[in-house]
Amino acid sequence: MGPNATAAKQAEQLRIDGNSYFKKDRFGAAIDAYTEAITLCPNVPVYWTNRALCHLKRNNWERVEEDCRRAIQLDSNSVKAHYLFGLVLLQKQEYAKGIRELEKALDLGRGANPKGYMVEEIWQELAKAKYQEWERSSTKRSWELQSLKQACESALKEKHFLDGSDMEGFVDDATTTHLKQLEALEGVFNKAAEADIPAEVPDYLCCKITLDIFHDPVITPSGLTYERAVILDHLQKVGRFDPVTREPLDPSQLVPNLAIKEAVQAFLDTHGWAYLMD
What we know:
- InterPro entries: CHIP_RING-Ubox (IPR045202), TPR-like_helical_dom_sf (IPR011990), TPR_rpt (IPR019734), Ubox_domain (IPR003613), Znf_RING/FYVE/PHD (IPR013083).
- Residues 200-274 form the U-box domain.
- It is an enzyme of class 2 (transferase).
- This is E3 ubiquitin-protein ligase CHIP.
- The protein has helices spanning 3-23, 27-40, 45-57, 61-74, 79-91, 95-112, 117-166, 171-193, 228-237, 258-271; strands at residues 217-219, 225-227, 255-256.
- The protein is mainly alpha-helical.
- The protein folds into two domains: 3-124, Tetratricopeptide repeat domain (Serine Threonine Protein Phosphatase 5, Tetratricopeptide repeat), CATH 1.25.40; 203-275, 2-Layer Sandwich (Herpes Virus-1).
- It has a three-stranded antiparallel sheet.
- A hairpin with a 5-residue loop joins strand 1 and strand 2.
């Protein structure tokens, strides 16, 4: 066995040791093990992402970022690296960049293992980040609308006062007009605020099996759309047929339903991501 092979074998044993320490919440010992593995074999991405996860458990975000950046340099398709890096960016309040990293991790995770635990974990973190972003935007819009409404009301009151002083004998008419204008103004601003009021999720955006909003919709040859992980689970455990039409169905026949995916994205962006929060 050559020196490279020996180093690789030692590094892999250190990874196993690090994993064991991590499961026991001995994060310092795990970091030491992964660091030794990195010293022996610095070009193995998983050693960096494993160490990054330990730093995350210690809330050492600067180290998490360093390790994730290195892991992404080594493997741009590392689901865990993009996921952890996304969390770092959200921690730094770089929300747009953080969301992009989580979306990258989600796409990579769906491609690698649609039913994997990380896909659901990433989806939940993405939902939380999207909802927080929407909530901040909603709060800002509400404040701006309220300020504009107050300015408009003040302008109408000032106009009513001036008109009233020039229209002796017509005070009642001026007051009636003023009240109608205020009522119309209230209606306009109530309508403008409707975009920030959550609406019910339309049925066509929900899986027919789980009745939950789609995460990763796929369409069958019969034209029905299901959640990918759910229909794959059905095909594996129940049988290779469409659960609604009962027609034969093979996993290779499932095609991403991009139209529904975009519709879900648009709905959540408009009405907030609170629907995906536990």
